[in-house]
Amino acid sequence: MRIDILCKPESGPRGERTLDNVREALTQLDMVAEVHLFKDRRKMIDSRVYVSPAVLIDDHVRVAGRVPEVHEIKSLLVERPRYTKRVNVA
Questions:
Q1: Helix, strand, or coil here: 54?
Q2: How far apart are CA 23 and CA 35, in angstroms?
Q3: For the structural domain made of 2-89, what CATH number should be given?
Q4: Which of left, alpha, beta for 29 (phi over 0: left; psi -120 to 50: alpha)?
Q5: In what order do the strands lie in the sheet with 60-64?
Q6: H-type helices in 12-80, by residue range?
């Protein structure tokens, strides 16, 4: 799973707070994922995101324009098909 956090270079601590919340959600769910924080306008435009911060899970925009809470990120991660398949097999 790949999680990208996109924000503007001048967005301040909002991107860092989002990154901390994503890491906390991954820790609570005991999941492993690639997490990247991009402070780049070009990457935002390429992903068709115009408000920051934005959370992309496997290249799909899930949250944009606000810092998501940990419980919200957990619900987004649990609904991913790969996670569901892994839980059902076990």
A1: strand
A2: 8
A3: 3.40.30.10
A4: alpha
A5: 34-39, 2-7, 54-57, 60-64
A6: 14-29, 41-46, 70-78
Output the CA–CA distances (angstroms, integers) from residue 42 to 9, 14, 16, 48, 67, in the order listed: 11, 18, 19, 10, 21
Distance CA 84, CA 79 (A): 7
Residue-wise pLDDT tens digits, 7-62:
999 888 999 999 999 999 999 988 888 999 999 999 999 999 999 899 999 889 99
pTM: 0.83
Task: Kindly state the DSSP code that residue 47 receives in the 8-state scheme.
Answer: T
What six digits make up the tokens of 61?
Answer: 């925009």
Nearest to 8 by CA among 53, 45, 64: 53
Q: How many CB atoms lie within 10 A of CB 40?
A: 13
Collapsing DSSP to helix, strand or coil, 55 comes out as strand
Residue where the block lists tokens 């097999």: 89
